[in-house]
Automatic annotation (TrEMBL):
Protein location: Cytoplasm
One Gene Ontology MF term: DNA binding
Protein name: Probable transcriptional regulatory protein ACFPQ4_10970
TACO1/YebC-like second and third domain mapped to chain residues: 79-235
Origin species: Cohnella yongneupensis
Length: 239
């Protein structure tokens, strides 16, 4: 399973640091999660996951509150959760997750981004089988051994615990997200550098220099699309 999670997170955060794009996308995601159930994270687990992730991306409280108020009030927009699978340069694999109120527009935009940047759309299932849905937590201030010990004591089921740069990264099954979070909470850990459910590649690939430049352009084009929430891939970037 691919590692170097901090490198992925830092690249995404750096790319979005000077724009409001990531906040707008979180606004939609929070609204959709809140509309699925009660607009209360204590009774709506999907919403709780989104809010925890928003916290690690420093989404302003005003954005979160606005989305929740919209869900509580007269907001009646219908959004569809879509997944597109495809290929980039040198056989690299890409998963695109989107939330949209216009399926035709989103499909056209994603296909165009692939076609114009050296990629190609695949059929459903052509890529996803090479990825695992995974709950990811990142934290600082503790060693991997300390984290493993507190998770064992809490009887939390995790896939992997390892140190990366100055952080400890924990991988767990998606249905263990809340159990792991509660285990950390009971141990006094409430701040995370990462807390989300993602698609992690089972194996990573590296690209030649020319392929890497083209791949970066493709990923940027996909991430820039208004309806795209997440882009996952199996390319390992150089440190």
């Amino acid at each position: 399973m691919g590692r170097k999670w901090n490198n992925i997170k830092e690249r995404k955060a750096s790319k979005d640091a000077n724009t409001s794009r990531i906040y707008a996308k979180f606004g939609v995601e929070i609204y959709v999660a809140a509309k699925k159930g009660e607009p209360d994270p204590e009774s709506n687990r999907a919403l709780k996951v989104v809010l925890e992730r928003a916290k690690t991306y420093n989404v302003p409280k005003a954005i979160i509150d606005r989305a929740l108020e919209k869900a509580k009030g007269s907001g009646n927009e219908t959004y569809f959760e879509l997944r597109y699978e495809g290929f980039g340069p040198n056989g690299s694999m890409i998963i695109v997750d989107a939330l949209t109120n216009n399926v035709n527009r989103t499909a056209s935009d994603v296909r165009s981004a692939y076609n114009k940047n050296g990629g190609s759309m695949g059929v459903n299932g052509s890529v996803a089988y090479m990825f695992d849905s995974t709950a990811v937590f990142g934290l600082t201030g503790k060693s991997a051994d300390e984290v493993m010990e507190l998770l064992i004591e809490a009887d939390a089921d995790v896939r992997d615990v390892f140190e990366e740069d100055d952080a400890v990264i924990v991988y767990a099954a998606p249905d263990q997200f809340h159990a792991v979070q509660e285990a950390f909470k009971r141990a006094g850990v409430t701040e995370f550098t990462t807390a989300e459910i993602v698609m992690l590649p089972q194996t990573n690939v590296t690209l030649p220099e020319e392929g890497q430049a083209q791949f970066d352009k493709l990923i940027d084009a996909l991430e820039d699309l208004e309806d795209v929430q997440q882009v996952y891939h199996n390319v390992e970037f150089e440190d």
